[in-house]
Amino acid sequence: MTSFCRTCTAGCGTKLTIDDEDRIVSIRGDENNAMSRGYACFKGIHSHEAQYSPERL
Length: 57
What we know:
- The protein contains two helices and three strands.
- It has helices at residues 42-45, 47-51, and strands at residues 2-4, 13-18, 24-29.
């Protein structure tokens, strides 16, 4: 699935891998995105870990 990162205002294009329970299991930069051309920062690539963390408030 394609999407974009919401961590900062750059809005880098991303590709998401979704499991059978509709949870994001991986995020990577979308090489077909004209603006970010496959780039995504460390925070964006690992944001799903924070989303599903048991320590999240």
